Amino acid sequence: MNGDDGGEAVASSAGPPPPLEWKFSQVFGERTAGEEVQEVDIISALEFDKTGDHLATGDRGGRVVLFERTDTKEHGGNRRDLERMDYTVSRHPEFRYKTEFQSHEPEFDYLKSLEIEEKINKIRWCQMANNALFLLSTNDKTIKFWKVQEKKVKKISEMNVDPSKAAGNGGVANASVSAGPNNNLANGSYLDQSYNCLSKDASFPPRVISSLRLPVVVTSNEISLVAKCRRVYAHAHDYHINSISNNSDGETFISADDLRINLWNLEISNQSFNIVDVKPTNMEDLTEVITSAEFHPTHCNTLAYSSSKGSIRLIDLRQSALCDSHSKIFEEQEAPGSRSFFTEIIASISDIKFAKDGRHILSRDYMTLKLWDVNMDSGPVATFQVHEYLRPKLCDLYENDSIFDKFECCLSGNGQRVATGSYSNLFRVFGCAEGSTEATTLEASKNPTRRQVQTPSRTSRGLSSTITNAVRRAGADSPGVDANGNSFDFTTKLLHLAWHPTENSIACAAANSLYMYYA
């Protein structure tokens, strides 16, 4: 997947990489036994920056929390440089709390009589500048551009100016000021009427003012992190924003709702361009909506968006101002006789991600992960069954609305593995290199393999798999239990996770807790 034919040939001859052995690294916001989770504390967005040195989370209370990596800072360099210098680096990435700020507040749309939640839907990092961090955060309606910068704290060291110290502060007072104990006057009083205030002598009247009370401000070594909202991009979406994505040009980004995708310039907050509009003339004719959108990682003119019908459309901004027609469409052909009431619901794609090289797209629908080659639109190159054991329970899932849960997905930096979440606070990691049978199930806890049951991956081929030589890998198929043979819990679901851009490290959100693992 790295686009290097020679490298791929070597990798294929050597066989697929061995399965990773995942270990617990850290947890932030761990719950104690029996502790009730507050709704506003539940994590709703998660994102590493491009360097992997910073991690941002957003929650339902509208807050953004930033974490920074500490294991490389101790030696003052990045991991690659340290390895060249033979430094002994930490065995895995370690993070610490950096700062937090209130990104969004609850609002009310008086024209539509609609409450707008403060919940953070997405966070995207922007390019760093002058040692300041920049990021975009959005709720259902409003996108904000934040700058987070370290500033030295200025403090008042003392109030009374001492002549010796005052000389270094502009010479406000000098030796001619009398220090008599009883010469203080009330404001506005003046003893010596003969004193010439227009005199060239800048000293204070003799025997009148014993001391001048002025603050002496000094810059301390203490560092404070300041988050400042630089721009607000509002009033451009009639429906809830489900995606934002930065362009590789560093100047523009897109925001997507159910029916439209808008293109913004980071510097201009009062104007956006509508580049995709799927709203029909008659809303009764509406058959599908936009569910996710993302820019290509290197081609600034290309972006992809997914739909509720399970298709992914690739569009080229150079074709026309309004990209109603796509350059490519990726969708899987339905097997004959397999259609049911739930077919279209579970086909809806909840998240798409480009691989780092831009060659592949990973998509997540309710039941599966699919890997697509942008050069082959006949079908996915690989399909991974996330929780096939739920298929007999689709009716129950529909009744409790769990079937509409939006699970995210992620790829490793080298493109050899993919990951996504499931219920019971479980997440799954699959190997997507040719010949790989890696299919690991982990639990978001301090012992990720506690509920692990080793089950051989099963390969099955359907109609579309035969056409595209796709590989389907599945876990256990017992209808009453999850992949590990445990009872199933719909209330605990792992929707959000992110893979470190350069290392085998995963951050995942389980309710209000942030768990981190490494391999």
TrEMBL record:
Residues 1-23, 443-464 are annotated as: Disordered. InterPro entries: PP2A_PR55 (IPR000009), PP2A_PR55_CS (IPR018067), WD40/YVTN_repeat-like_dom_sf (IPR015943), WD40_repeat_dom_sf (IPR036322), WD40_rpt (IPR001680). PROSITE patterns: PR55_1, PR55_2. It comes from the Eukaryota. SMART domains: WD40 (SM00320). Pfam families: WD40 (PF00400). GO terms for cellular component: protein phosphatase type 2A complex. One of its GO terms (molecular function) is protein phosphatase regulator activity. Keywords: Repeat, WD repeat. Belongs to the phosphatase 2A regulatory subunit B family. The B regulatory subunit may modulate substrate selectivity and catalytic activity, and may also direct the localization of the catalytic enzyme to a particular subcellular compartment. This is Serine/threonine-protein phosphatase 2A 55 kDa regulatory subunit B.
